[in-house]
Amino acid sequence: MGNMYLGLGKPTEAIKYFDESISQYPNGRVIGHSVVSKAQAQAGLKNYEEALQTFQSYLAKNPAPDVAVIAQYGSPGSTRTPENGTTPSPPTRS
Question: The pTM is what?
Answer without folding.
Answer: 0.66
